[in-house]
Amino acid sequence: MWLLVICLVAFPLLYEWSITFKYFCKMAFYNGWILTLAILAIPICAVRGRNVENMKVLRFMLLHIKYLYGIKIEVRGWENFNIKEPYVVVSNHQSSLDLLGMMEILPGRCVPIAKRELMYAGTAGLACWLAGVIFINRKKTDDAISVMSEAAETMLKEDVRVWVFPEGTRNHSGSLLPFKRGAFHLAVQAQVPVIPVVMSSYKDFYSKKDRKFATGKCTVRILPGVPTLGLSPDDVPDLTDRVRGLMLDAFSQMSTERPGKEPGGIH
Ligand SMILES: CCCCCCCCCCCCCC(=O)SCCNC(=O)CCNC(=O)[C@H](O)C(C)(C)COP(=O)(O)OP(=O)(O)OC[C@H]1O[C@@H](n2cnc3c(N)ncnc32)[C@H](O)[C@@H]1OP(=O)(O)O
Ligand SMILES: CCCCCCCC/C=C\CCCCCCCC(=O)OC[C@@H](O)COP(=O)(O)O
């Protein structure tokens, strides 16, 4: 009994006092909450079986999280998504919080490419599988490439869009890692445009290194599509560099606009 009282008093004190403790609580809740929401999503998605339309269910389930965490997301460039045909979205990848920005703007019939390990993340893995997430084995290049070639066919046959993080891993360095070329091969194979998406730096409110997680604002910019019609595999390196350049420019520009801290949410 006394132990419970001490815990009830100590927890809020520690939460307010220690930035690190708050960081771990907020991250644990983030992951735990997603795993819990997935339990609700699984039976709803299971009715349709593995189907990209289930991505709408996941999107709907996750949209409120930004309010819980007091993260304001401002979207610019919505009009660039006004393309009826399939396309490949490429975006920067800072942390697992990218899921919030992604769900904010996720177009219809669009599935992310994810590392295979995510498939084994309990309920979230199953929900992702049911929503048609494309899993790749990053340790086996040939397998990853053949999965992506299959994706190019599926995009055209089943009118599906694909979201890729071309950095291939999370990167919180405040810049962009060199891009891997899979997303661009995919776009050229399917002869569909690449639409770059840039999420502004989280450094004002989130830092894994400093164990900081406050409230704040993030801007998501959807850039105009880059056509690939008529391009061949030989053009992929140039296309990759061009798109990375566009994204780096946008990222640098957004980093100079200092976003103000927003009140509200879990402090
Ligand atoms: C409610 C619950 C909800 C839960 C919701 C959760 C939502 C889920 C959100 C999930 C978010 C999760 C987010 C995540 O999980 S992000 C992590 C996983 N994503 C990625 O890794 C995507 C980016 N990676 C790539 O594009 C890589 O290139 C791949 C993986 C394909 C290979 O990488 P790898 O490192 O092994 O090799 P390499 O890049 O050195 O390439 C080697 C050579 O092959 C060439 N090549 C490449 N591709 C193709 C191709 N298609 N056709 C022909 N050739 C191709 C390439 O040009 C190069 O040749 P050259 O140029 O040097 O001559
Ligand atoms: C019973 C098993 C329990 C397993 C518990 C696993 C906990 C995970 C819980 C929830 C999953 C949250 C989904 C977040 C989706 C974001 C995925 C993400 O950001 O993946 C990282 C990947 O892009 C790059 O990976 P690396 O930076 O190379 O690494």
From TrEMBL:
Domain Phospholipid/glycerol acyltransferase: 87-202
Listed InterPro entries: AGP_acyltrans, Plipid/glycerol_acylTrfase
Pfam annotation, one family: Acyltransferase
GO MF terms held by the record: 1-acylglycerol-3-phosphate O-acyltransferase activity
Transmembrane segments: 28-47, 118-136
Keyword list, A-Z: Acyltransferase, Lipid biosynthesis, Lipid metabolism, Membrane, Phospholipid biosynthesis, Phospholipid metabolism, Transferase, Transmembrane, Transmembrane helix
SMART domains the UniProt entry points to: PlsC (SM00563)
Catalytic reaction(s) noted: pentadecanoyl-CoA + 1-(9Z-octadecenoyl)-sn-glycero-3-phosphate = 1-(9Z)-octadecenoyl-2-pentadecanoyl-sn-glycero-3-phosphate + CoA; 1-hexadecanoyl-sn-glycero-3-phosphate + (9Z)-octadecenoyl-CoA = 1-hexadecanoyl-2-(9Z-octadecenoyl)-sn-glycero-3-phosphate + CoA; 1-(9Z-octadecenoyl)-sn-glycero-3-phosphate + (9Z,12Z)-octadecadienoyl-CoA = 1-(9Z)-octadecenoyl-2-(9Z,12Z)-octadecadienoyl-sn-glycero-3-phosphate + CoA; a 1-acyl-sn-glycero-3-phosphate + an acyl-CoA = a 1,2-diacyl-sn-glycero-3-phosphate + CoA
Biological or metabolic pathway of the protein: Phospholipid metabolism; CDP-diacylglycerol biosynthesis; CDP-diacylglycerol from sn-glycerol 3-phosphate: step 2/3
Gene Ontology CC terms: endoplasmic reticulum; membrane
EC code: 2.3.1.51
Single biological process term from Gene Ontology: phosphatidic acid biosynthetic process
Family: Belongs to the 1-acyl-sn-glycerol-3-phosphate acyltransferase family.
Function comment: Converts 1-acyl-sn-glycerol-3-phosphate (lysophosphatidic acid or LPA) into 1,2-diacyl-sn-glycerol-3-phosphate (phosphatidic acid or PA) by incorporating an acyl moiety at the sn-2 position of the glycerol backbone.
Comment field on protein domains: The HXXXXD motif is essential for acyltransferase activity and may constitute the binding site for the phosphate moiety of the glycerol-3-phosphate.
PANTHER family named among the record's database cross-references: 1-ACYL-SN-GLYCEROL-3-PHOSPHATE ACYLTRANSFERASE, 1-ACYL-SN-GLYCEROL-3-PHOSPHATE ACYLTRANSFERASE ALPHA
Protein name stated in the entry: 1-acyl-sn-glycerol-3-phosphate acyltransferase
Taxonomic classification: Eukaryota, Metazoa, Chordata, Craniata, Vertebrata
